[in-house]
Amino acid sequence: MSDQLLVSTRKGLFTVERSASGWRVTNTAFLGENTTLAHVDPGDGGWYVALNLGHFGTKLKYSPDAGATWEERPVPAYPEGAEFVPGDGKPPVPATLKLIWALQSGGADQPGRLWAGTAPGGLFRSDDHGQSWELVRSLWDQPSRSRWFGGGYDFPAIHSLCVDPGDSRRLRLALSCGGVWITDDDGATWTQGGHGMMAEYMPPEMQFDPAIQDAHMMVMCPSAPDTLWVQHHNGIFLSSDGGHNFVPIINGQPSVFGFGVAVHPHDPKTAWFVPAIKDERRVPVEGKLVVSRTRDGGQTFKMLRNGLPQEHAYDIVFRHALAIDSSGDRLAFGSTTGGLWVTENGGDQWHEITAHLPPVHAVTFVVNGPKK
Amino acid sequence: MPTVVIASSLARWLTPTPTVGAGERAVHVEGTTVREVLDSLFTGYPQLRSYVVDERGALRHHVVAFVDGVVVRDKQTLEEAVPLHGEVHIFQALSGG
User: What is the mean pLDDT of residues A151-167?
Assistant: First the structure.
């Protein structure tokens, strides 16, 4: 189990730790700065934190010692001549880094490997702990990239990176809006996945085009890596063949709209979602914050509400703000209105850690525990 | 030689985590154009480069430079002349919430 959380917020990075008296905030870094994502390398325990400073651009910070000290790391840079052609008819623009939206370490056999998913749609690879980055041209040069477009942002953005624990050459990624992409050879070649997803926001003849799907978030079950769950703009989808094909899960309660999804690390049929009213309102259904859990692969769902606000709650949980630890019992999520909750029993009971953080972008369990 | 004056909101990023209470910083540098002056500044403070210019080398959209009180208009080429004892100020837009 992990006893430490990194909470990335609009106003800084908060470290939250569990003690005998419960969970509490124990450290703050980059206070006042827009912290968009944190990643802990399971190999060396290093912390990577992405900031989006607005005027001064996107930044990447690294801490080798659990936040005691920080170093600047270069951010991925799009090469000269790289161009983004919006799929919605806007004129082409030079591709420059807008956002680091996903960070994922390679396999245990790839020390120093980091993948970075970015806006406007570039996947970057580092083999030296983020000291240098290279655009993965084999994906960037896919002809169907011309159909990608922004969902939420002005640019398409890679938000989900899933590395097969048993074979680190197998990587699956998802982006808004460009669907699911698959490589089985460490990024040398790519195949469009995500067949079976459906986009209500497109003209009828284009609704099943896999290259325009708005997958909000995709997670892979570590013990059954051919199982991938997707929270999509238009519902929940499940793949049992490594991301090639998906089936819609229609029984989500109280809705099938949301952003985050977590899968049990040892049981591919168990997954959690934080539903909301689609699409124009984006608030919890009836102002009641609930987590939705299936234990049977999406045939049935149970709404988990113990310990969560059930009256005039307007918390939205962003795609990276729902996290699960390696035990599968402990989950945590943070909301746009600054709430942070944790469960020790798979969601049957939730405990409010605080209700007063800045808007939460991402919640990350520290895999190796505190390094002091 | 010219002087570059870095606004406090930028000077606090001379360290990996922002320095609380960092004031503005004045640095003497070589150069006869804005580009040369900035390159000289980045030689001494390499971590500052990505905060001031984007990956194409242009002044960031919300960063502005003045040479002796005159705004630098071409943020891409940065070829405006800087006098021998000129003063280059680097600021950023005001915003927040």
Answer: 93
Residue type for position A312? H
Question: What is residue B81's DSSP assignment?
Answer: B
Query: Which of A56, A71, A133 is the best residue to mutate to test the B interface, defined by the most B CB atoms within 10 Å of its own CB?
Result: A56
pLDDT tens-place string over residues B14-40: 888 988 888 899 999 999 999 999 999
Residue B64 DSSP symbol:
E
Task: Kindly report, residue by residue over A162-196, the tens digit of the pLDDT.
Answer: 999 999 999 999 999 999 999 999 999 999 999 99
Indicate the residue of A55, A59, A70 with minimum beta-carbon distance to B92.
A55
Whether A97 sits inside 8 A of B55 (CB atoms) is: yes
Task: Write out the two tokens for A10.
Answer: 């609009």
Among A199-203, A343-347, B5-9, B92-96, the range of highest mean pLDDT: A343-347
